[in-house]
């Protein structure tokens, strides 16, 4: 379980020639760190008299943020699980027409599954960005810079996860499905990058004036 590994162990295996973890696992890790930073801002805001008008919302954010961070960590393993069938499919024999047909069928299914995992990760990152964006508005000013860092971590993770979508959909035979997946990714990229940039700009304005 990569989510339970030590940071130095994760970095070592990420640096190796092993096929997983790769960009997907790293994106899940980065997004989890981003959400954790958002959670820190919420924890430093809760109970403070200065932000009492947001207390109920902050309490809700703490519950939601903890759940999202845990789910993002789980995507580190989900990405590896989704890639395994594709890795095996590349090694299937293709010496006869029957073998080629079977390999093509298995490859198509594996590519679909390998595209679905990063798409699901992107959807979860979008949830994280919505929370962090709100924290950039109502979070404690003494920790607001961490909301900006969290937004940037999630932005990088979102863009990273999209590459894992596109590299797989490019090889799919079912172009209609591939383009549907690409469109979903493009929509999240546009909205997510905008949210992250707005949150970052808001933070910069708050700390630099």
Task: Explain what the structure shows.
The protein has 209 residues and is an all-alpha fold. The chain has six helices and no strands. Helix 2 runs antiparallel to helix 3 (55-90), helix 4 (97-138) runs antiparallel to helix 5 and helix 5 (144-169) packs antiparallel against helix 6 (175-208). The model has no long low-confidence stretch (mean pLDDT 92).
Concise account of the structure shown:
The protein is mainly alpha-helical and about 210 residues long. Helices cover about 80% and strands about 0% of the residues.
Radius of gyration: 20 Å
Structural class: mainly alpha
- Uncertain runs: none
Tell me roughly what share of residues is in helical segments. over 70%
Q: What's the number of helices?
A: 6
- The portion of residues forming beta strands comes to under 5%
Q: Whole-number average pLDDT?
A: 92
State the end-to-end distance.
44 Å
Choose one word for the global shape: elongated
Main sheet: strands, sense, barrel: none
How many strand segments? 0
- Would you list the SSEs in sequence order as H and E? HHHHHH
């Amino acid at each position: 379980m990569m989510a339970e590994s030590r940071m130095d162990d994760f970095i070592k295996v990420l640096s190796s020639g092993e096929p997983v973890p790769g960009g997907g696992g790293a994106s899940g890790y980065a997004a989890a760190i981003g959400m954790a930073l958002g959670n820190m801002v919420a924890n430093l805001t809760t109970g403070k008299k200065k932000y009492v008008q947001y207390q109920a919302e902050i309490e809700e954010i703490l519950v939601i943020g903890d759940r999202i961070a845990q789910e993002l960590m789980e995507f580190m393993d989900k990405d590896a699980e989704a890639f395994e069938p594709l890795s095996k499919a590349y090694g299937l024999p293709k010496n006869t027409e029957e073998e080629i047909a079977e390999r093509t069928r298995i490859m198509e299914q594996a590519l679909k599954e390998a595209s679905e995992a990063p798409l699901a990760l992107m959807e979860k990152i979008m949830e994280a960005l919505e929370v962090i964006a709100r924290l950039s508005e109502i979070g404690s000013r003494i920790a607001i810079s961490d909301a900006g860092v969290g937004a940037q971590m999630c932005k990088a993770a979102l863009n990273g996860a999209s590459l894992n979508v596109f590299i797989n959909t490019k090889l799919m035979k079912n172009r209609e499905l591939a383009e549907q997946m690409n469109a979903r990714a493009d929509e999240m990229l546009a909205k997510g990058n905008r949210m992250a940039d707005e949150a970052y700009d808001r933070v910069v304005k708050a700390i630099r004036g």
